[in-house]
Amino acid sequence: MGILVWIIVGAIAGFVASKVLTGKGMGLLWDVVVGILGAFLGGWLAGLVGIPVSTGTFTLSGLLAAFVGAVILLVVFRALTHRGLLHT
What we know:
Elements: H1 2-20, H2 28-48, H3 60-82
Helix pairs in contact: 1-2, 1-3, 2-3
């Protein structure tokens, strides 16, 4: 059940992160995929700095960690594709 919660939270976080960041989005599907990956990244980073994030429940700290992770991944991905390092 915990993985399913992270996927849902990541999808929400990816969508919100793509709307918060300026510039052209990558499309709804890719923003959601990056958000899901960002949720795992954000949860891992939160654990490193000592912020408890539960993977089995929907919490505000989990949503915030997923949002931060999604923003980080979106910024990195857009920076790489903008400079022509990755071709989409």
